[in-house]
Amino acid sequence: MKKIFVVYALLFGLTTVYHIVGLFVKVNDSPPIRHLLFAVITAIMAYMMIKRPNYLPYLFAILLSQQLHSHGKDIYQTWTQEGKIDWISANVVLLLPCIFVSILIDAKARNRSSNR
């Protein structure tokens, strides 16, 4: 299971780069301060994917809720207003729940092994 978290860390790292670019180049309608905030958040998440502290499921649940709300709304608006698929948002909405399930499975396994 550890190898998948390296992949997740790399994905969060790429997302961090995207948001850093968004500070200097208009990549979407988000203001630079939002890109700065998410550059920090995604960099922290990349680190957390490697370290996987016991509280990661709780932190990730908060991020997941926010991302599903924000990107879910973006998918709907892009589709209804432009007739297009917002592929970044679609990937976020599909991938983050899978990462969350991996985190929960890993946390349960790590907790089980520490209780032995």
Structure description:
- The protein has 116 residues and is mainly alpha-helical.
- The chain folds into two domains: 1-51; 55-116.
- It has helices spanning 2-24, 32-51, 56-82, 87-114.
- The longest helix has 28 residues, at 87-114.
- The model has no long low-confidence stretch (mean pLDDT 96).
Features:
116 residues, globular
List the helices and strands and how they pair.
Blueprint: H1 2-24, H2 32-51, H3 56-82, H4 87-114
SS element count, helices: 4
Count of all domains: 2
Order of helices and strands: HHHH
Mean pLDDT across all amino acids = 96
Whole-angstrom Rg: 16 Å
Helix vs. strand class: mainly alpha
Q: Low-confidence runs (pLDDT<50, min 5 residues)?
A: none
Q: What is the number of strand segments?
A: 0
* Major sheet size, sense and barrel closure: none
Beta-strand content bin: under 5%
**N- to C-terminal separation?**
19 Å
Helicity level: over 70%
> Outline, from the CA principal axes?
globular
